[in-house]
């Protein structure tokens, strides 16, 4: 798709009391909602990342998402709703465990896989008989969906494979001229996409780790499995977004190095040195704890810290912006540290591994 669309930008201040109710009637939201009802594609903020939304009941509308993103059509989309009343439009059954999860985590960064209705556009589910649904915890998103009056299918608002956008500027960098509009509601909060859990099977299965951890889920509904793809690679037919293809990748070649601190630093240094010998501009994805070391390293051209190891929430929040910043610095070869897979670390490592295209060295 060529950049031949005039992209309208609506700036919305969501820092108001009773934000959802007030925003729903504000001029910018009303206008953006009209675009959605007319089957245009509109980007908007959620508490995780910016999404690229379209009417989930219309294949014509959803096609515009795939065209703008350059996204493979076998990659299903998540449907966003503003109220539980909208569930009857998109799902034919709500298992008891799904109800428990909704009560505990909605609105919030949790997508629940449910049996779909025939009203959901076939492109949304990539031909599957199930659909991923979530209620975002962001006043702008909730107001926009409510004002549109239809459920909204929305993947992340970036070109396919690129780091997900956490600001409107990121969206415009990728999609200006490709989408009808962008609702600018400021920077997002969580920074990583929602956790996806399939409750159509027993025990339920996490298909994508995200802002809600496995441990949190199990506190509510008991044992939860992890999809085998976390260990065995992508599935041939993905059942949820992010299960197939390289995602979140900077333009430069990226590698992760796993192991104990000293061997990791030695290995990363060797890789940087070799890249420099081949004339490549190098980058290091560092932490607060290691940033000074890499800043002083002669073969590290660009050193960007993603946050402290002791605060994985900070790492998750900053990860995509840092990956995009490597492109701003024209880094051609990037090495990064790994993180514990406990709790939120599972989601952080899932995104890093996909950003690196599975390229991991063990020190």
* Overall tally of domains: 2
Distance N to C terminus: 43 Å
Class computed from helices, strands and strand pairing: alpha/beta
For the sheet with most strands, the description reads: 11 strands, mixed
CATH architecture name of the largest domain: Alpha-Beta Complex
How large is the share of residues in beta strands? Answer: 15-25%
CATH-defined topology of the largest domain: DHBP synthase
Order of helices and strands: EHHEEHEHHEHEHEHEEEHEHEHEHEHEHE
**Unreliable segments of 5+ consecutive residues:** 232-238
Specify the overall morphology: globular
Helix content: 25-40%
Mean pLDDT: 91
Which class of the largest domain in CATH terms?
Answer: Alpha Beta
| Quantity of strands, as a count | 16
Number of helices: 14
Radius of gyration: 20 Å
CATH superfamily of the largest domain: DHBP synthase
Strand arrangement, largest sheet?
1-8-2-3-7-4-6-5-9-10-11
What does the oligomeric state look like here?
A: single chain
Organism: Brevibacillus choshinensis
Main location: cytoplasm
Protein name: Threonylcarbamoyl-AMP synthase
Family: Belongs to the SUA5 family.
